[in-house]
Every structure is written in C-alpha cells, then in structure tokens.
Design a protein that fits this description.
By secondary structure, the protein is an alpha+beta fold. It has eleven helices and twelve strands. Strands 7-6-5-4-8 form a five-stranded antiparallel sheet. Strands 10-11-9-12 form a four-stranded antiparallel sheet. Strand 6 and strand 7 form a beta hairpin. Helix 1 packs across helix 4 and helix 5 runs antiparallel to helix 6. The longest helix has 17 residues. It is elongated and about 90 Å long.
Amino acid sequence: MAIAKAERLMNLALCLLGTRRPLSKRELRGSIEAYMEATGEDAFNRMFERDKDDLRELGLVIETVENLDGEIGYLARRDSNRLPPITLDAEEAAALGLAAKVWQQARLAGAASGALQKLRAAGMPEAEDSYDAQHSALEPRIPVHEAAFEPLMLACRDRRPVVFDYRKANAARPEPRHVEPWTLECWRGHWYLAGWDRDRGAERVFRLSRITGKVRSRAGAFTAPVPDVVTVRETVESWAGETATRSARIRLRAGCGYPLRARAQSVAEGADGWDELEIPYGHGLDAWLVEFGPDVVVLEPADLRADVVERLRAVAKG
C-alpha cells in the first residue's frame, strides 16, 4: 500500500510539473491510473485532496488557478520548484560532512548520509576528511538509544498528537500522557521532548529514557498553538537547578557522580570514602539527586533532604 501511494504521488507530481497550463481534476483523473481505478467521484476527490496536501507538505509548490469558465486547475511551475545553485566552499563542505558523522550511530544515519550524497552529486566539493578514524581518536556522536526517538521525531515533523506511558522520577509506576509534540533536544547526553500536555493543559518536557512501551500516534490536529521558539534546554536547566540562586551541601561517594562534581561550587575531599560538595540548588534538583541512589546523601537544606527522602520512599514502594 505504501509503494502504491508513493507511485501515485510521484505520478501526480510529474503531471503537475510537466504541464504548461493548469490541469483540472477531471484531466488528472484521466491521466493517472490509480485515480481511474477509484470507485466513485467521492473516493477520487478524497484521494486527490490527500495527495495534493501530501505533496505540499513535502515542499512542492502547487498553484490553484481558475479559468474563465470557473473551472479550477492545478499546476506546479518548474521555476517555483527549483532549488538555487549550490555553492559551498571546502570549509562549508567539511562542516556538513562533520555534521553527517554526528548521526552515524543514530536513527538518522541513513537520512544524513543520503542528504550528503545528494549534495555531492549536485556539485558540493569533496572535502578532505580530517576527522577520519585513522587520524583522530575523537569523533562527534549524538547517542540515540531510546526506542521512542524515531516515532516522536516523526510526530514532531508531521504535527501528530501522541500517547505514551511516562514514569516520573518519584512515581512508582508509569502513567499515560497525551501530548502534542513540538521538538526534541539533546542535553547532557539525554534526549528530551517538549510539547503540550493535553491532560494538564500546559507545556511539559519529557525525558525519553522515562518513556515506557510504545509511542502511539493519534488522529486529529493540535489543540494548542506551537510557539515560534521552544526553549527545551532552558526549561530542563531550570528543573535541574542550573538557574538556581541557592546552594545545597551533599555528601558524594568518592569516584562517583561526575556530573555533580562538574557543577560543584566547591569540593572537600573526605577521608572516609565520601566527599562533601556545595552545588547550585534549584527546582528539580531533588529528582536529579535521586538518580544517583545510595551514592548521594543530602546534608542541607532540610527541605531538599526531605524531598529526596520522599522520592526514594516512593520508588521503594513501587
């Protein structure tokens, strides 16, 4: 079925690009075999409208023109659907090659490699690969291990609502969440989804590693407007205490908790196998500390210690 639809879309695109005058729906139906086989005028109209919308979603500029008799016709002018010449110098080509390498171990590896091949075929210069494994032991990578990444990436692209089970850090079991996905962003080795939580009627950010089970798509349009700029990183940073104005004192087992040590304002090495750290304290720090389990003990403030203990008890009950 997917192959048949792809062939139908290709035939429609070729018809619209190959004509010098607008073609009516009647003429298009008589030119494309799949439309001729449609059972009834209503079935053809629904199929044609979906195909036209799909082509526009893919970037094809389709014009709608009304002739003197009031009949509607369609065409896609070549000058409106032609990319400008690609002019990249060697440094720009090297930057694109490096960007493609970032995705080689992620689910976008095929798309990144295909895009690079198309650019090279269109005249992009071959840049010397200074990042080849034979010359460098360091290569950029964006880790994508979560099964939820690909369906959420497609849902963000297609503006499709989704449903998934999500387990918060202090929850004993996951709960279903109905979300209108906006964008995905990687921060400190973890992927996050920003979107509109329909059940809570507010913007929320979800960590993909806490999504359990399959991500399921839902029909229908978004109910909330998508912001022009989605500040995923800023939201996550505020939850993790990055914008904190207070400080907290914790004990951290020696040799553990490098992310905490990297953010510490001061570190006092202890002789008992534990170090004492002073770290920024903001909203969501308790959830982050819980992830380090028995390697962290909160000394102060008392409210942070109480929040961490409460979260640990909730996890233990589950």
